[in-house]
Design brief:
Blueprint: E1 8-10, E2 13-15, E3 19-21, H1 36-44, E4 50-56, H2 74-87, E5 93-98, E6 117-118, E7 127-130, E8 134-137, E9 142-143, H3 146-165, E10 170-175, H4 180-185, H5 200-203, H6 205-218, E11 223-227, H7 242-256, E12 260-264, H8 276-285, E13 289-293, H9 298-306, E14 312-315, H10 317-321, H11 325-331
Parallel strand pairs: 3-4, 3-14, 4-5, 5-10, 6-9, 10-11, 11-12, 12-13, 13-14
Antiparallel strand pairs: 1-2, 7-8
Helix pairs in contact: 1-2, 3-6, 6-7, 7-8
The protein binds flavin mononucleotide.
Flavin mononucleotide is lined by residues 22-25, 54-55, 97, 99, 174, 176-177, 226, 264, 268, 293-296, 315-318, 343.
Length: 359
Amino acid sequence: MSLLFSKTTLGSLTLQNRMVMAPLTRNRATGNVPNELMVQYYAQRAAAGLIVTEGTSPSPNGLGYARIPGIFSAAQIAGWKQVTEAVHPHGARIFMQLMHCGRIAHPLNLPAGARILAPSALAAAGEMYTDAEGMKPNATPEAMTEADIKTAIEEYSQAARNAVAAGFDGVELHSANGYLLEQFLRPNSNQRTDRYGGSVENRARFVLEVTAAAIGAIGKDRVGIRLSPFGVFNDMPPYAAMEADYTYLAGQLNALGPVYIHLVDHSAIGAPPVPDSMKATFRTVFKRSLILSGGYDAVRAESDLAAGKADLIAFGRPFLANPDLVARWKAGAALNAPDMSTFYTPGPKGYTDYPALAA
Ligand SMILES: Cc1cc2nc3c(=O)[nH]c(=O)nc-3n(C[C@H](O)[C@H](O)[C@H](O)COP(=O)(O)O)c2cc1C
């Protein structure tokens, strides 16, 4: 594992290895504020080169799920500061994933006064868990006005500033998996007739404006973006121009110059694979760092790094279930299996109690 465990750089940052902890929503942030349990969870995993946090909302309007954290209030900034201060001494760098859920939401999960917003007033198929009433259908969102779009862009750039104030090394814009940014990109969820809908140039406009605003707020080296070309999660059906649209996006993002693109491939859990041609396009068109993720073990990660397919590899469930994943792989030790029944439940069970190897 000469590459996986070796130091590298990400923009102006040095990383202690090429292992990224993928963003994992864990729903432990009661009241949408990070707490001591979350501090412990992230500190346990800080042997990674880079941690990308769970999806964190830049706005009260983006809190679609129960118990997910935000980064728009003073209490949230203070809570997250505890996390970054616990992680950094172990050597990991940490980016906050900014996730605005858009239409993947239920009003019972949102604070009073918050609005469920999306490019068009179209509900996503599927259901959403609420603490108060269990499973409920996803809400029908309000179509965003131009003023709502402007406000959302300002919320992303303020959230990026807040993340830096909380000690983060940067932010990852969640433009994957059917959340707000991807809702603008995809034609099924974006049926607008103004300059934010229709052609790919228009559907990509919001994502590119958010990226530019975040870069304007905290700088190119502190902004990454996650994309899921060919992803179908959260009612995002495939369509004919998918590869052409994401090729356009790759070129536009290259011009803006965020520090990385992080591609999601959910084929390990039964979704359509991201074609190799699409991954190769991102590798060629986008000149800064590329992160690949989805179903990786150490051997496949090393092989893709050696083949030059990516600069870093992200691991989700392996880090979830193995706080000492780096040490386990270095030792060739077996891994703990993830327990799906506690992925999203409150409390320490299945969160901070996965055992580390005996010292
Ligand atoms: C419990 C759980 C929560 C997740 N939450 C997020 C999230 O907040 N943001 C995101 O971009 N992806 C999220 N994902 C997807 C993971 O980042 C990753 O892409 C996926 O688990 C596949 O990688 P793996 O095979 O290494 O687990 C989540 C996955 C799991 C299992």
